[in-house]
């Protein structure tokens, strides 16, 4: 069963009483981007969808989570992780190059801590528009290589390398290698 990103965005925008132009102005994106996403003619980047959802306001977890994870759950199997991003790529015809997936452990809002299992396919990029939010985040690369940009600092991280920074500093993640990159990260307070 595929997730209708465009339909869900339109449903939320209308429920918030916003026109496409009003949501675009609140989000700092173009009106045409909102229109293309709602028509499922454009698959938004993680950064673009996050900016748009800030205009509603709503988290990505609430955007995608059909059944909330119980707050008292302690242990999670791989199949229990909440997929936050792979649904964004269904519009692109199934080509995995450049795709990424972020899978969340449990209810991040209840614990004020977001733990993610991240996969970046070769060419994946969080976007030229750098991310910036009120959090702190860190992670460890488990496989592959990941180029991390934080402000004016850029470093390619290999397995075992890690990062930790104030997320209010503009940042970006890119897999510039030829193999899948896997990262486990944490962010507080939760961003996605």
Automatic annotation (TrEMBL):
Q: InterPro entries this protein is in?
A: Cro/C1-type_HTH, Cupin_2, Lambda_DNA-bd_dom_sf, RmlC-like_jellyroll, RmlC_Cupin_sf, TransReg_Diox_bact_type
* Native source species: Bosea thiooxidans
The protein's matches in CDD domains, at most eight in alphabetical order, are given as: cupin_XRE_C, HTH_XRE
Q: Which domain of life is it from?
A: Bacteria
Write the protein's name.
Transcriptional regulator, contains XRE-family HTH domain
Q: Name one GO molecular function term.
A: DNA-binding transcription factor activity
Query: What are the GO cellular component annotations?
Result: cytosol
HTH cro/C1-type domain segment(s): 9-63
Any transmembrane segments, and where?
none
Arranged from A to Z, the UniProt key words for this protein are: DNA-binding
């Amino acid at each position: 069963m595929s997730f209708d990103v465009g339909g869900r965005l339109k449903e939320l925008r209308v429920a918030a009483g916003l026109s496409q132009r009003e949501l675009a102005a609140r989000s700092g994106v173009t009106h045409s981007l909102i229109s293309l996403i709602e028509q499922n003619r454009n698959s938004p980047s993680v950064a673009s969808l996050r900016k748009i959802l800030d205009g509603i306001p709503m988290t990505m977890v609430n955007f995608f989570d059909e059944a909330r994870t119980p707050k008292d759950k302690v242990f999670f199997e791989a199949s229990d992780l909440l997929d936050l991003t792979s649904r964004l790529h269904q519009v692109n015809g199934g080509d995995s190059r450049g795709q990424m997936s972020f899978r969340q452990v449990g209810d991040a809002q209840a614990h004020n801590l977001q733990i993610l299992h991240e996969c970046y396919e070769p060419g994946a990029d969080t976007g030229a528009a750098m991310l910036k939010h009120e959090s702190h985040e860190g992670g460890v690369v488990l496989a592959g290589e990941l180029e991390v940009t934080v402000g004016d600092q850029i470093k390619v991280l290999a397995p075992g390398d890690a990062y930790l920074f104030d997320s209010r500093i503009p940042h970006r993640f890119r897999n510039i290698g030829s193999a899948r990159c896997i990262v486990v990260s944490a962010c507080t307070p939760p961003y996605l």
